[in-house]
Amino acid sequence: MGRLEYRFFARISAIALMLGSLSLCSVVSAQEPPAAASMEAAREHMERGQELFSGGRFVEAAEEFQRAYEAQAFSAFLFNAGVAYERHGDPARAADFFARYLDRDPEANDAREVRARIDQLRTAAANQQSSTGTPTGTGTPTGTADGGVVTTETPDGGVPTGTGTPTGTGTPTGINANDDDQPTPTAVPEDFKSLLSIRTNPAGAQVTLRQGDRVVSTGPSPFAFTLEQGDFRVVVEHPDYRRIETPVRIRPGKVYLIIVEMSQGEFLGYLRVITDVPGARVFIDDHDAGSVGTTPFQNAIATGTHKIWVERPGYRTVEREVEIGVGEEVLVRTDLTRVDEGRIRVVSNVPGSEVYVDDYLVGTVPYEGDVAAGPHRVRVEADDMKDWEAQLTVRQGQVTPIRVRLKPAVSRSGAWTTAILGALLIGGGTGMAIYAEGLRDDLEVERLAGRLASSDSRLTTGFWMTIGADVAFGLGAVLGLLSIYYFLRDPLPDSEATVLDPRDWAFAPYYDPRTGEGGGTMRWSF
Question: What's the distance, CA 403 to chain centroid?
């Protein structure tokens, strides 16, 4: 049905959400609060850089960190670019980025360690240049066919000076020696810097970041920190609201956001819901309260455990329970599964026409109803109109629209009149024939007894009765044939219909609690 993915960042929301991360560096107080769009871009480049670094593509990772810095000038991105070049085996470029990191944040807590690391890298770069005659940082690094350079890391991640490892031998760091096109997965270094951005509503609340008993930094919101990984506690205070605090665990190389809603006294995370079929309604915690939006859905949400429902007409309801952490974005990604039944929708030019499915009356036009998926015979009937009938296949979770145009049936009143007249004539002829036959029998008896006179009037009556019966039979036969013709004759066109391809159909009301706006979308076409 679906899968739940947790990612340790939070997307910018309509309330000007920001992203950030933690590190044991000092506060970058000179940096302005980030704009939503540029911070989002920085976060995306940061994550892409991590993926590339983990895949052993260190130069591309460093370029992504540089793009993150161009989007938002935080020193963490410069530091991580330096680590990537260092792992690639380009000590000169690595030293340049670590130097830029210190230029951006000269009072960083790890400034002394970074300066020592720069000295080691400069020495390694000079050794490379003297041994190969090629300036480092430009062209193709020496020693490997694919541009890799063997380096040996010190415990703090630096390159030791005067390393005795000859270039051109061994396996480049992060590269699979058996397949240059498939880098060996590389763990993200623990010294990667992370970024934390904190915003409060209302702004101006005093934020204090602690690690144990030590105050790492404090200041008014909004602000951002460049820090290393670790466990921290965020305390937020405002004169008009109660004090709130929460623990935060920061991992290396992440961009985090902490949103604080002072009026509600809670920290917020971020929820995203994505479905393979967009437009599904999302319900959170209270289904009866109505949907909070449609997929793709994204919004800030209180931390803690929440129950969500994802619904779309024609698909099974998806239920999930998610845990929203401080500064985290929770992504619910699910593939919707169609229900077992399908639906037919019938409209006609004759309102009230009866709709039959497999010879069962199911309703009148306009009609829309669910039927089991599969083949069905559908018929539409109306008085004085020709029936329409067809075999069609109903698909799971989809509606099959049918537009029926019933045509008038031929009037059979003339046929019935002719048939009745013919029947009366035949009936009259039959009566006359019976009467004439009776006279004939009587006259025969009289003749045999010698009592029959030639002037007996019954002879004339019998004669004309016989003639009348023959005429009545003849006319009745003609009218009978004529009525059959009138019954069979149909000069008018048959009823017809357009059966459209099955399609999704949804009416999805929505309400945005942030803006108070609501509405709905409908897709209904023929």
Answer: 29
**Helix 75-88 / helix 58-71 crossing angle, nearest 10 deg:** 170
The residue assigned the tokens 């639906």 is 343
Instruction: State the Cα–Cα distance between residues 381 and 332, nearest whole angstrom.
Output: 48
User: What are the start-end ranges of the H helices in 89-145?
Assistant: 91-104, 111-132
Q: b vs e for 36-65, b when ≥16 Cβ sit within 10 Å of the residue's Cβ?
A: beebbbbbbbbbbbbebbbbbbbbbbbbbb
Low-confidence residues of the chain: pLDDT under 50: 1-34, 138-182, 507-526
CATH architecture of 341-410: Sandwich (2.60)
Whole-angstrom distance, CA of residue 144 vs CA of residue 160: 20
- Phi and psi dihedrals of 107, rounded to 5? -100, 20
Give dist(CA 224, CA 233) in Å, integer. 15
Distance (Å, whole) CA 57 – CA 172:
11
Residue 226 to residue 235: CA distance in whole angstroms: 17
- Which of 230, 260, 262, 234 lies closest to 247, judged by CA? 234
For residue 198, the 8-state DSSP code is E
How many degrees, rounded to 5, is the angle at CA 262 between CA 257 and CA 266? 65
The CATH number of 266-334, from 2.40.30.20, 2.60.40.10, 3.40.50.300, 1.10.10.10, is 2.60.40.10
Joined tokens for residue 243: 């004090």
Given this model, what pLDDT does residue 506 score?
Answer: 55
Q: Is the dihedral of CA 84, 90, 94, 96 positive or negative?
A: negative
pTM of the model: 0.52
Domains in the chain: boundaries: 266-334, 341-410, 413-488
Which residue has tokens 């670094």?
A: 53
